[in-house]
Fold:
Amino acid sequence: MYIRWIDDLLALAESKNFSRAAESRHITQSALSRRIRSLEEWVGADLVDRGTYPLELTPAGKLFCEQGREALQLLLAARAEIRQETRMPGKAIQIRAGHTLSMTFLPRWIKQCQSRHGQFNTRVVAENVLDAVTALSEGSCDLMFCYHHPLTPILLDPEKFDYLSLGYEDFIPVSAPRPSGRPAFSLPGRNTAPLPYLAYTSTTFLGRVVEALLKQAPTEPSLERCNEADMAMLLLNMAKEGYGVAWVPESAAVDALQKGELVHAGSDEWHTRLEIRVYRAINNANATLQELWQSLRNDGTTKKAR
Structure:
């Protein structure tokens, strides 16, 4: 059993709706349903009465929620105590960040912050957005860096979390070039010859951004999904090798574009903008974080999560 399954059930008990619970857990409804089924198999009983509306828990589900909530609080408290003892010494900040931001944006940002606001130590863990959001929610990190897009918002309780907007970058389709310098795969493609599409897996944040972009495109693209990955850097390298067209944050592709290893695979109508955000828990008591956040707030605008 995974601890996150308990959180899934607690979210479902609160919202009484699979769709809203899935949204609050930043997963698809089908993924939430699978995880609840897995939890029921582990417990050995139905926990959700799927024949009622609004949805209700079974007696077994209510009992498991009550006991599971208490057990989860004890586990998280024990983990927090252990992690506090193993924190980096001195002034330190624990960071979780999306894979691409951890490789492109974050090193520069840390250096700039240290030069402007004083030296502090960092521990950085790169992971997918869902796991980073979970880490922030559970108190496993001080700062969480991610992309934001209005079509696929990250929903965090505005009474518990706030954020800073750190900038924007373009999210662009790229392709390996032909000898002529033109893209080997140029959007929108043709029905008779669909473009090989290097896609993100369906549960990733960037994957949801691409799908939303394609639904709003003025011209319906002709794409054939041929490879999937959950990391932009992997899709970028596959695009460089000529496997197909991929959407990547421009910061990840800038070197390859300058060297001519990649070219833009479509005009501006196939681009969109990603906002770079950093989140924190409002009640985080880390003095180093509080000092840094106040300095950053004086530099820009702090907003509640939404």
Observations:
- The chain has three domains: 3-85, 92-157+276-304, 169-274.
